[in-house]
Design goal:
The complex is a heterodimer of chains A (257) and B (248).
Chain A lengths: L1 H21 L11 H14 L1 H33 L1 H14 L8 H8 L3 H25 L3 H9 L4 H39 L4 H10 L3 H29 L4 H11 L1
Chain B lengths: L1 E8 L9 E8 L4 E5 L6 H9 L6 E6 L2 E2 L7 E4 L11 H12 L3 H14 L15 H14 L4 E5 L7 H18 L2 E6 L2 H7 L2 E5 L6 E6 L14 H16 L2
Parallel strand pairs in B: 3-8, 3-9, 6-7, 7-8
Antiparallel strand pairs in B: 1-2, 1-4, 4-5, 9-10
Helix pairs in contact in B: 2-3, 2-4, 3-4, 4-5, 6-7
The chains are: A mainly alpha (257), B alpha/beta (248).
Chain lengths: 257, 248
C-alpha cells in the first residue's frame, strides 16, 4: 500500500508524458515517448553498455566518497573537539565551500588529465563539505548536560569522545554522509560530462552529439534510479545504527503491531 | 561532610545575586533537603557544590577539602535529560564505573545489582527513549549510586514527573538511601516531599536566595507513605509552608 502511494507520482508523470506524445504535442527529437525511452534503455542494458557506464560511475563515486568520508569525519571530529584547530581551518573551509564541484573541473583536468582521477577528485570535493560540516556541528552541538554528566563521573577525554561525543552526534554524522554521497553522485556525473571517456555522464553527453535523445533520457533515468537506491541504502544504514532513537523505536513498534 | 560557608553567586550581567550568603552543613549519612520556591537559586547552589559553577564568594568544603571542579565523589542527579540516549539502561549505569576503570565483568555485576535495586530488572537492554519519565530517573539514580560516591546531589529529581509517579519515586529514593547509607542533598520546591524524605530541611528565601532557617524533621524512621496522614506530618508541613509564605 505504502509503496503504491510512493510509485503513484511516477506513473502519473509517465501517463501525462505518453498522452502528450500521443496527441502530437511533443517533438520526437526533443522529447521522445516514454515507450521509446524504455526500449532504448532495455537495448542499452541488453548490450551491457549501460552497466559498464553505471559501473564506471559507481566506482568513481565510491572511491571519492570513501576518501571524503575518512578525511571529512576525522577533520570534522577533531575540529569539533578542539577549539584551536577549528579556529584555524574553519575560515578556510567557509571560503572553499561555496565554490561548486563543477567549478573545480577545469583545474582538475589540468592537474589529473582525463579519466578516473579528476572524477575522484571532483567527487571528493562534492562529498567532503557536507560530511565535514555535519560531523563538526554534531560534535560541537553535543548537549552540555551530557558533557557535565561525563565530567561528573571523571571520564577521560578519550572516553568522552568515544562514548559520549561520537555516538551522540552519530545521527548528524550519518546525515552528513548521506548528503555527501548524494552530492558526490551528482558531482561524478558533472565530471564525466567533460572529463572522462566512460560513465553515465559521458554516455549522455555522447548521445547528445549523436542526437539519440531516447538514450540521453534512458541515461538520466539510470542516474536518478542509482541515486535513489544509494539514498535508500544510506537511510537503511541509519536505521540500523540508530536503534536507540525515538523515531526508530516507534517505527519498530508499529512494524510489530 | 559538606560545609557551605557564606556562599554567594552573582552571574555576569545579572541584576541581583542568584545566591546570597548561603551557609549550612550536611552531616555524613544524612538526608538533607533545601526547600525553596523556583528561581531562588537552588540549582545554582547544587551546581556550586557539585563544582560545575564557581562561587563569587564564600567557600564549600567537602570532607574538609575545598571544592574545585566536579568530582566522582559528588554525583549529581539532574531534573531531566541526563541519561545517554544512545546507551542501554545497563550501559548507562555502567558508564561511571567505566570512567572509574572498573573491569567489564565487575561493572556488569555492580550495574545489575543497582538496576535490581531500582526495580528495573528486565530492562537492562532497553534504551531511554522507550522508558517512562519515572523509569529514566530510576536509571539515573542507579547510575549515580553505582560508583559509590561520597554523596549524591539531587536537583529537583522528581520535578518533571506527575504526582503519582512522584510519590512512588520518593519511596524508591528513601529505600535506596536506607540501603546505601549515602549522604543525600536534595533541592526541591515541594514541601511534602522535603518533610517526607529529610532528616533536616533548609528553607531558602526568594531573591536573593539565602538560607533563612534549618528545621529538624523528627518523624520516626523507617517512614512509609502512611506517615503523610499523621497529625505530626501535617503539622510540620503547615509550619514549613507558613514559614515560606511569611518570608515573601
Amino acid at each position: 500500500m505504502k509503496i503504491l502511494k510512493k510509485a503513484l507520482p511516477f506513473f502519473a508523470v509517465l501517463l501525462i508524458w505518453e498522452l502528450l506524445f500521443r496527441f502530437g504535442l511533443l517533438n520526437e527529437y526533443l522529447l521522445p515517448s516514454p515507450l521509446s525511452v524504455a526500449k532504448a534503455g532495455l537495448a542499452l542494458a541488453g548490450s551491457g553498455e549501460l552497466f559498464l557506464d553505471l559501473f564506471a560511475s559507481v566506482k568513481r563515486v565510491l572511491a571519492g566518497f570513501l576518501a571524503a568520508a575518512v578525511f571529512g569525519l576525522t577533520l570534522g571530529t577533531l575540529s569539533g573537539y578542539g577549539r584551536s584547530l577549528s579556529d584555524a581551518i574553519m575560515p578556510l573551509c567557509e571560503f572553499l565551500r561555496p565554490i561548486p564541484p563543477i567549478a573545480w573541473i577545469p583545474i582538475a583536468i589540468l592537474w589529473f588529465g582525463l579519466g578516473d582521477n579528476p572524477a575522484y577528485f571532483i567527487v571528493f570535493i562534492g562529498a567532503f563539505f557536507p560530511i565535514f560540516i555535519n560531523s563538526y556541528w554534531g560534535i560541537r552541538e553535543s548537549r552540555l548536560m551530557h558533557l557535565n554528566v561525563a565530567r561528573n563521573f571523571g571520564a577521560s577525554r578519550f572516553l568522552v569522545l568515544t562514548d559520549v561525543l561520537l555516538p551522540g552526534s552519530l545521527p548528524r554524522i550519518l546525515h552528513g554522509l548521506r548528503i555527501g554521497l548524494g552530492l558526490g553522485w551528482t558531482s561524478v556525473i558533472s565530471a564525466e560530462l567533460v572529463g572522462a571517456q566512460s560513465g553515465l555522464g559521458y554516455m549522455i553527453q555522447m548521445n547528445r552529439v549523436m542526437l539519440k535523445t531516447e538514450n540521453i533520457i534512458a541515461g538520466m533515468v539510470t542516474i536518478g534510479l542509482a541515486g535513489l537506491l544509494m539514498n535508500y541504502l544510506m537511510l537503511l544504514l541509519e536505521k540500523r545504527l540508530l536503534t536507540w532513537r525515538k523515531d526508530t523505536l516507534r517505527s519498530a513498534e508499529t512494524a510489530e503491531a | 561532610m559538606i560545609r557551605v560557608t557564606a556562599v554567594s553567586k552573582q552571574y555576569a550581567g545579572g541584576r541581583e545575586a542568584a545566591l546570597q550568603k548561603a551557609s549550612f552543613e550536611v552531616r555524613k549519612g544524612e538526608f538533607f533537603c533545601v526547600l525553596g520556591p523556583s528561581g531562588c537559586g537552588k540549582t545554582t547552589l547544587i551546581n556550586i557544590i557539585a563544582g560545575f559553577v564557581k562561587a563569587s564568594s564564600g567557600q564549600v568544603l567537602f570532607d574538609g577539602k575545598p571544592v574545585d571542579g566536579p568530582c566522582r565523589d559528588r554525583i549529581v542527579v539532574f531534573q531531566e535529560h541526563n541519561l545517554f540516549d544512545w546507551m542501554s539502561v545497563a550501559a548507562n549505569v555502567e558508564f561511571g564505573l567505566k570512567a572509574k576503570g572498573v573491569p567489564a565483568a565487575e561493572r556488569c555485576r555492580i550495574a545489575g545489582e543497582f538496576i535490581d535495586l531500582v526495580h528495573l530488572k528486565g530492562f537492562e537492554t532497553a534504551y531511554p527513549a522507550s522508558l517512562s519519565g519515572g523509569m529514566k530517573q530510576r536509571v539515573a539514580l542507579a547510575r549515580a549510586m553505582a560508583v559509590d560516591p561520597g554523596c549524591v546531589l539531587m536537583d529537583e529529581p522528581l520535578g518533571s514527573l506527575d504526582s503519582q509517579m512522584r510519590e512512588r519515586l520518593q519511596l524508591e529514593i528513601m529505600a535506596l538511601w536506607e540501603k546505601t547509607k549515602k549522604t543525600i542533598l536534595m533541592v526541591t520546591h515541594d514541601i511534602e516531599e522535603a518533610v517526607f524524605l529529610s532528616d533536616r530541611v533548609a528553607l531558602m528565601s526568594k531573591a536573593p536566595g539565602g538560607i533563612s532557617e534549618i528545621v529538624n524533621i523528627s518523624l520516626p524512621r523507617p517512614r512509609t507513605a502512611a506517615v503523610k496522614a499523621t497529625p505530626e506530618f501535617q503539622k510540620l508541613k503547615r509550619e514549613l509552608s507558613e514559614k515560606i509564605m511569611g518570608d515573601r
